[in-house]
Write a structure and sequence with these properties.
- It is found in: Periplasm.
- InterPro entries: SBP (IPR006059), Sperm_putr-bd (IPR001188).
- Keywords: Periplasm, Signal, Transport.
- Its main location: periplasm.
- There is one protein chain.
- This protein is α/β, with parallel strands linked by helices.
- It contains 14 helices and 14 strands.
- α6 packs across α14 and α8 crosses α9.
- The chain starts with a helix and ends with a helix.
- The N terminus is likely disordered.
Length: 348
């Protein structure tokens, strides 16, 4: 189990180890925290080391860096970003004949022409999770988190954190204002969600950019309520801090999924890129993913290993509430949301 405290305490040691134990022939551009050995165990067994990693904190940061000329072999965007990578000519299709477990990916994760069309398969979905209310149950009564209006509650002013992620905060705002499908948002719905976010901003202590940072603020007691991915909750539970994950407020919660793209003109080995993906998609990778980060796997056979109790404990089980799925949405609307979020954070 990777605790956020050990990540921080061992950072200098980890950097030293990585310098000696990384493959120079595969550079993975990834979210911080995904360098979990169990996810690339087959790869490491074959090559004697894991791949090299470089990290980012959010999808838009990653895209901007790659669009500006940074070179890596594979990257790990969430689904709503794939169209931007395609439109910018940054990626090329995967040869799925080289990925045996591709056939075992749950079809719902490939149900878009953005991911798969007559030109090929542009995206390999690998992992999924939820965005919902993380809270300290010793300080926050359950009835307070029965609604997303808890983020507007003056009782918690300065004790709330939100992700510094446009997609996640807009998912929250749309849900809070009665929208559970963001693929066809009207002008009135956009304006209502923006107004709600401006109200919520008045209560925000911080916008977290990394689940470890979010977990720190909750562990310290500074933050009592956060709009959270599974990661931060997993880290807090592992270190014994009081935390609960409310995925069924009356307005609902959100889900997302992410995966890997094959970057054009990567500096490393194409063969190793496929070995890395095959390692990730192996059923044996799923327990490591769930234990370390709290995420589900896209491989149907991999998920058959887990009981209903396992899924519920990880915050991945079925909930009786609206769900806003963060699937690809209108690119122009997404850019508008991103710009509006920057204004809101700046107090405008």
């Amino acid at each position: 189990m990777k605790h956020f405290t050990s990540l921080l305490a061992g950072a200098a040691c980890l950097i030293g180890l990585q310098a000696q134990a990384e493959s120079p022939d595969l550079l993975v551009f990834d979210w911080s925290g995904f360098e979990v050995p169990g996810l690339f165990a087959q790869y490491a067994q074959k090559y004697g080391a894991g791949p090299s990693y470089t990290f980012y904190g959010d999808d838009d940061e990653a895209y901007q860096k790659l669009a500006s000329g940074f070179k890596a072999d594979v990257a790990h965007p969430c689904s709503q970003m794939v169209s931007k990578y395609r439109d910018a000519g940054l990626i090329e299709p995967w040869d799925v004949s080289r990925i045996p477990a591709f056939k075992d990916i749950d079809p719902k994760f490939l149900n878009s022409k953005i991911f798969k069309d007559d030109q090929g398969v542009w995206y390999i979905p690998t992992d999924w999770g939820a965005t919902a209310i993380a809270y300290n149950p010793e300080k926050v009564p359950a009835e307070d988190v029965a609604s997303l209006d808890v983020f507007l509650n003056p009782k918690y002013q300065g004790r709330i954190s939100l992700p510094d992620s446009s997609d996640d905060v807009w998912a929250l705002a749309y849900l809070a204002t009665g929208v559970s499908d963001w693929t066809n948002v009207t002008e009135d719905q956009f304006q209502a969600a923006a107004a709600w976010l401006r109200k919520a901003h008045q209560n925000v202590q911080s916008y977290w950019t990394d689940p470890s940072e979010q977990a720190q603020t909750m562990a310290s007691g500074e933050v009592l309520i956060s709009w959270s991915w599974n990661d931060g909750v997993t880290y807090l539970k592992a270190d014994g801090y009081p935390v609960a994950f409310q995925r069924a407020p009356k307005e609902g919660s959100s889900t997302f999924f992410c995966g890997y793209v094959n970057l054009k003109d990567g500096p490393g080995s194409e063969d190793q890129a496929y070995d890395f993906i095959n390692s990730w998609l192996a059923p044996a990778a799923a327990p490591a993913l769930m234990e370390a980060i709290g995420y589900g796997h896209t491989n149907v056979k991999a998920m058959e290993q887990f009981s209903k109790e396992d899924l519920d404990a990880a915050g991945l089980g079925h909930v009786d509430a609206p769900i806003l799925a963060q699937t690809p949405n209108d690119p122009q609307m997404r850019e508008r949301q991103l710009a509006e979020f920057e204004k809101i954070k700046a107090g405008f």
